[in-house]
């Protein structure tokens, strides 16, 4: 910091919920009381959920936090109360405020707890061009509070939950509505409130994601496996691990790390003893189920050529990675470079991240297979069919139409070295 720069304002630590740490709601009678309270409250309701990512199988909620003016804060145990439809009905028509809603809405939907209106403070921050959009930085930057985040990666499936964790969970919704009010005013001032409302609604009504084709191919390190027999081992171990992880309700990576799967695929051990000699299988977690892993490897090694997986994912409706376009669709590669460049320039001028102005998937699809006759109108129709929101279509249709018809962009000249030492 120079002498001319003002000192950053000192943050006020947010250490204790205004009404204290509430008891965890874990009985039907207590939930009825919370429901009545929340229905009688006023204004938006702040909502959050804590999962046990990295510890348990799936992305289920292990604690739900809600806060509303006039009703206070409630902490709900969804393992004891797996149906929150009554609470959801009581809040029908009330705006829910979440941070990074797309992370929490799926696990809340499992509890029949779904909003009819939504405000996402993280997405609001992105549309306002904020560099840091985590809840802690947003609360600090907009409200001047220091919000501790030390328990964000905790195992929330633990019971009983420690008092310090419950305090942390209650503080996550303590000032969420206040943050929403500040951001909504800024969005309105920037002329972006309508954009935000369209984005919030798109998140709220988004269907569950379609199952991935060959999800086992996302195993970290699979690119090191060069042959189809090795890929068959990856596939068999991945599916076996999923079965074991779901059965034990443990995160797959804790049952068997990806490094172990890749090591087996490269070594192709022909016996359980040989598998046990591989370093990743010597740790206690992998060794505990060694016969199961050895049987999976053996099944993969007995497959005939017709049953081995292809080296690449069958495309189906999936586009190849952009690095492969120059070989498979060279004209599309040129179009994609132009589209990305022009969308990025427009995004910079609007102070919006490029991926929020138009999702990269839509940029790739319009470049891979543009309309037969490219005009702003046909591009607008194509983007709408893909799922782009009206505000996005209005802003990008004309620039993208120009980009699709533009010649290849000239290569940036390489900068000459400034000295003989650099050369």
UniProtKB/TrEMBL annotation:
Q: Which residues form the HRDC domain?
A: 227-307
> Which PROSITE patterns does the record match to this protein?
HRDC (PS50967)
| Annotated region described as Disordered, given as residue ranges | 308-328, 404-423
EC number(s) on file? 3.1.13.5
Spans traversing the lipid bilayer: none
Tell me which InterPro entries the record gives: 3'-5'_exonuclease_dom, Exo_C, HRDC-like_sf, HRDC_dom, HRDC_dom_sf, RNase_D-like, RNaseH-like_sf, RNaseH_sf
Domain of life, per lineage: Bacteria
Q: Which SMART domains match?
A: 35EXOc, HRDC
User: What's a Gene Ontology MF term here?
Assistant: nucleic acid binding
UniProt keyword terms in alphabetical order: Hydrolase
One matching Pfam family is: DNA_pol_A_exo1
GO BP terms: namely: nucleobase-containing compound metabolic process
UniProt keyword annotation of Hydrolase present: yes
- Which PANTHER family does this chain map to? RIBONUCLEASE D (PTHR47649:SF1)
According to UniProt, the name of this protein is Ribonuclease D
The gene for this chain is rnd_2
């Amino acid at each position: 910091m120079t002498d001319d720069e003002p000192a950053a304002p000192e943050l006020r630590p947010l250490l204790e919920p205004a009404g204290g740490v509430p008891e965890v709601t874990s009985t039907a009678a207590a939930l009825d009381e919370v429901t009545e309270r929340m229905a009688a409250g006023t204004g938006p309701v702040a909502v959050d959920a804590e999962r046990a990512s990295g510890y348990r199988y799936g992305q289920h909620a292990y604690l739900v936090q809600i806060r509303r003016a006039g009703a206070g804060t409630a902490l709900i145990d969804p393992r004891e109360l797996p149906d929150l439809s009554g609470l959801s009905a009581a809040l029908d028509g009330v705006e829910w405020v979440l941070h990074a809603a797309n992370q929490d809405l799926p696990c809340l939907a499992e509890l029949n707890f779904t909003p009819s209106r939504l405000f996402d403070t993280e997405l609001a921050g992105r549309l306002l061009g904020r560099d840091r959009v985590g809840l802690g930085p947003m609360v600090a930057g907009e409200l001047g509070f220091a919000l501790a985040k030390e328990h964000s990666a905790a195992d929330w499936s633990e019971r009983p939950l420690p008092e310090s964790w419950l305090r942390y969970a209650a503080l996550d919704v303590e000032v969420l509505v206040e943050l929403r009010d500040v951001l909504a005013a800024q969005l309105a001032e920037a002329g972006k409130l309508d954009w935000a409302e369209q984005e919030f609604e798109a998140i709220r009504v988004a269907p569950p994601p379609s199952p991935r084709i060959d999800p086992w191919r996302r195993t970290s390190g699979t690119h090191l496996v060069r042959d189809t027999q090795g890929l068959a081992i990856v596939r068999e171990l991945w599916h076996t691990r999923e079965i074991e992880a779901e059965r034990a309700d443990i995160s797959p990576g804790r049952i068997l790390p990806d490094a172990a799967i890749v090591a087996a695929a490269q070594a192709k051990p022909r016996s359980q003893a040989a598998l046990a000699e591989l370093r990743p299988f010597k740790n206690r977690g992998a060794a505990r189920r060694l016969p199961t892993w050895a049987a999976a490897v053996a099944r993969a090694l007995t497959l005939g050529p017709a049953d081995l997986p292809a080296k690449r994912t069958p495309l189906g409706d999936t586009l190849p990675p952009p690095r492969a376009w120059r070989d498979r669709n060279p004209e599309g590669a040129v179009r994609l470079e132009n589209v990305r460049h022009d969308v990025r320039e427009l995004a910079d001028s609007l102070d919006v991240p490029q991926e929020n102005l138009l999702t990269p998937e839509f940029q790739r699809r319009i470049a891979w297979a543009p309309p037969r006759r490219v005009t702003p109108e046909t591009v607008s129709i194509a983007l709408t069919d893909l799922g782009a929101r009206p505000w996005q279509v209005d802003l990008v249709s004309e620039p993208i139409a120009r980009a699709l018809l533009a010649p290849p962009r000239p290569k940036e000249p390489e900068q000459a070295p400034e000295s003989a030492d650099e050369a």
